[in-house]
Every structure is written in C-alpha cells, then in structure tokens.
# Entry
Amino acid sequence: MDVDPLTIDRLIDLALAEDVGTGDVTTNGIVPAGRLTEAYLLAKAEGVIAGLDVAARVFCRLDSETRLSARVSDGDLVLPGTVLATISGLARAVLSGERVALNFLQRMSGIATAARQAVRTATSVNPKVLVVDTRKTIPGLRALDKYAVRCGGAANHRFGLYDAALIKDNHIALAGGIGAAVRAVRRIASPFIKVEVEVQTMAQVDEALAAGVDVIMLDNMGIEDMRRAVARIGGRALVEASGGITLDNLAQIVATGVDLVSMGSLTHSVKAMDISLEIGEPPAAPAR
# Structure
C-alpha cells in the first residue's frame, strides 16, 4: 500500500498502547506463552476491502513471526463468507491484536465500500466526473482514510492545508471579498499551488471568474443554481459541487455538469464493514 510504513506503525503503536496497555489480562491468563494457532479473517457483509497490510502489521508489532496470508487484495469487492486472509503465529499475538486489526480493517473497508458506491452512482451519469473526499477524517487517521478512498476508486482532494489553497466563506469575510482573498493567497503561494474558492451565489461565481481561480466550489447550491453556475463558468475553471451530497442526490448533482463532487460522508460518518477473526481452519469459499 502507498502509505508510509512509519506512519502506519506509529498509528498501530498508539492503538495497541490504548487497547493492550500493560498486557492482555484475559489472553495472558488463558493462553500459554508459546502456543501457536491458526486463524482467519472472514467478511460477513459485501464490500470493498482496504487495510489488509495494516492488519498484518498489527500482528507483527506484537510478534514479528506472525504471518498474515491474504487471499484477496485491497480494492477487491467481496461477498459475505469470503475468507480474506489466514493468520498463523503465537496465539497471544493473534488474540491481543484482534480488535486493533479489525478496527483498522473494518473502518478502511467501510470507507472503500462507500467510495465504490459513490463512484458507480456518479459515473453512471457522467463517466468523466471525479468523486473526491474531504478533510473530514478521524484525527491522526487521514493517511489511512484517504488510502481507503482510493481503494474504492474515488480520488483524494487536498491532503491538508499545505498542498492546495481553498478559500472558504470565513476567509472571504476576513479578506473583504473574493478578489482580495485570491490576491493575498497568490502573493505567498507557490505558482504550482492550485487556488480554489468556495461560492454560494451567482455574484460570487462572477467574482471568482474575474479573479482567475483554478477551481470554483459550489457550496450547498440547489440543483438549478448549479446548472446555471456551470453554464456561466463555461469551462474557464474546474467546477466542484460540495455540501450535503449523499447517494440519494448524487446523480442529480452530477447531471448538472460539474467536474468534481466532494463527499465528506465517505469518511466522517462511514459505516464499518462487518469482518470477524475466527480461530481455526477457514471454511470453503462462498458460491458465486
């Protein structure tokens, strides 16, 4: 996976410190120190998988000899009953790492699943439209959340405040207008930084065009206003729709002609995918 391993291990260590603390009282009391075991990860719902490498690293942080052998890959769509991976190693490491591994894997797979659903809905209307995420991620987990979005086939918006300029309503209020805000940003930003501005009215669309921005975000606009705005912009800037976008209204919004649709729901309120860890031999693959 294309996330810095040191970042992943730092997150895993924080999660293990929180969950295992000074030791797993239950497991250490029941399981002898040297006992080996076999286990497997089982999908209990249909969804897109993301985070298998993270799960593997959880067990390895507890015992470097523990091995996770994946049977599917990140980005794969699986059915209920699919064995995602088998795990072999010290039973203490498997049981003590179970919840942390599943927490990462279930959340990331839930994000990937939501992203896949959104992309399918959007591209059924316009194959060229991009579905993108936002910065509404769990603090500390942004790299993993955004990786999971990519596994689902959607794209990433800016990673943080440093890799693109997005002028929002509060910036505009403090600067005294869109033109002033854009000029102020361009005085300090690299010429390679894209400048995007959030607008809510047609008058602001005109201001943004006059300022020569790269991307215009239509924030919480109605469908008819979006159509008017796209026509007014006429290809002079990329157009992004944002605010209150769900699977229910996504197709309508894409049909207005926007280039990008940003959905905070991909990460801020995602439903974790149901995945379990079971001790023993894995069952046969489900019928297709």
Summary: The chain has a mean pLDDT of 96. The first strand starts at residue 36 and ends at 43. The longest helix spans residues 91-123.
